[in-house]
Description:
Blueprint: H1 21-34, E1 42-46, E2 61-64, H2 70-80, E3 85-91, H3 92-98, H4 100-109, E4 114-119, H5 154-161, E5 165-170, H6 174-186, E6 191-196, H7 208-212, E7 215-217, H8 218-221, H9 230-237, H10 239-242, E8 248-255, H11 284-288
Parallel strand pairs: 1-2, 1-3, 3-4, 4-6, 5-6, 7-8
Antiparallel strand pairs: 5-8
Helix pairs in contact: 1-6, 3-4, 5-9
Amino acid sequence: MVAIADYNVREKSQWCPGCGNFAIVGALKGALAELQIPQHQAVIVSGIGCSSKLPHYVNTYGFESLHGRGLPVASGIKLANNRLTVIDVGGDGDGYGIGSGHFLHIMRRNYDLTYIVHDNQIYGLTTGQASPTSQIGMKTKTTPHGVVETPFNPLSTAINGGATFVARAFAGDMAHMKEIFRQAISHRGFALVDVFQPCVTFNKLNTYDFFTKRVYKLEEQDPKHDTGNRMLALEKAYEQVKTNYERLPIGVFFKEDRPTYEDTLPQIKDKALVEQPLAGLDISKALDD
């Protein structure tokens, strides 16, 4: 039996007191334990940022990569050993800014991995610059007169871009977030979970109180929401824009069953790449080419 405590580490967290990342790492450990995934069968990958310290705080295999490059590393790990549970974590700047190109193409290929984005609408590690998801009018170090750019909408991008599981959670509701993580990890295909994660130090607009007054669970207030209906999912994804951030749905927006990228590769259909023997392998032709 795998317990939550099995994922604990001795290293002390470097996050600010009250940071939403604490709830995210707790919910992730809870989801892994409920799914009974042994530590040696899970890999957590990250880019760079406050969120990307998470692999240090969970007792599984981990890889902290470059800024915005977590998804390419995660996809490479999945191809090398498609038996592993691969989870990539990052922030809104890491994934929706510098890493946006990887985000688009890896999700359209439908790799079987989970992508958890700590979306705090700010660059926290570099002390408070506007990010791709900062609201219009938000004043930051880089936007002293207020943000003028239209915020990036990760949910609509994922729904249109080929992700087969698209959800959102709120770090202020750890139990609900754990359930969303559990469903995302269980899903075969690319799963995005965008998390409203308050940055208590540098974002004074999108606070716990801000979200608590505005979030609602799709499955409770709209029990007829059809997660297989792409157009309905897009409508819900744009609700925060239409209501000027007054109504913020969380939960599962969209999901579908589609062959994963790994399913289409005959080289790993019967045996993971790492399980295949190297003895007798002739690479001379490849070298000649």
